Amino acid sequence: MKILVVCGHGLGSSFMVEMNVQDVLKNISVNESIEVEHSDIMTASPEMADLFICGRDLEENASRLGEVLVLDNILDKQELEEKLLERLKTFNLID
């Protein structure tokens, strides 16, 4: 599985959220390996990942990508962890 974190320019905030996603994944046991990368929203396309993560400000632009996890606060690690775990369950990647 591949997760792509997107932001406006693909530099600062998406990289920070990517690091937070990797931290969350280290603390749980998943049923398969998960690759995590970051990109800007404009070059992201549906075939680039199975799940996309973005902030609420990019929700409308990201809707074209397919499976999107939207964060109300990209700095809130607890929100990220809760929403990511819930979404990984729908992919049957965690119990």
UniProtKB/TrEMBL annotation:
GO terms for molecular function: protein-N(PI)-phosphohistidine-sugar phosphotransferase activity. The keyword Transferase applies. Keywords: Sugar transport, Transferase, Transport. The keyword DNA damage does not apply. Coiled coil: none annotated. InterPro entries: PTS_EIIB-like_sf, PTS_EIIB_2, PTS_EIIB_2/3. One of its GO terms (biological process) is phosphoenolpyruvate-dependent sugar phosphotransferase system. CDD domains: PTS_IIB_ascorbate. It comes from the Bacteria. This is PTS sugar transporter subunit IIB.
